[in-house]
Amino acid sequence: xxxxxxxxxxxxxxxxxxxxxxxxxxxxxxxxxxxxxxxxxxxxxxxxxxxxxxxxxxxxxxxxxxxxxxxxxxxxxxxxxxxxxxxxxxxxxxxxxxxxxxxxxxxx
Length: 108
Fold this sequence. Notes:
Layout: E1 4-11, H1 14-26, E2 32-45, E3 48-62, H2 66-76, E4 85-89, H3 94-103
C-alpha cells in the first residue's frame, strides 16, 4: 500500500486556492500545496457544457490523513460538488518524502 498521496482539487478564484492551501498546511494535513492557474476547465453541469477559469491545487500528504483532508476540503470548498481526487505516489525522492512526513500531523 502506498503511503504518500497527491490530492487534486480546483477552485474558481486564486484567493480561495491560497486560503485552502494555507488551511491545509496550517492543520498539517498537507506538507505542501502547489497552486497552478489560471487553467480552463470544460465540463457538464446542470445538463449543459460549461467553461470556467479555475485554479488547480496539488496537495501533498499521506494516505492516513486522507479522510480528514477530504472533510476539511469539503467544509471550506465553495463548490457544491468539488473535485477531490486522490492519486497514490508510487515513488519519489527519498529526502523529499522524509521531509513531507516530518511536516504532517503525527498520529495522536
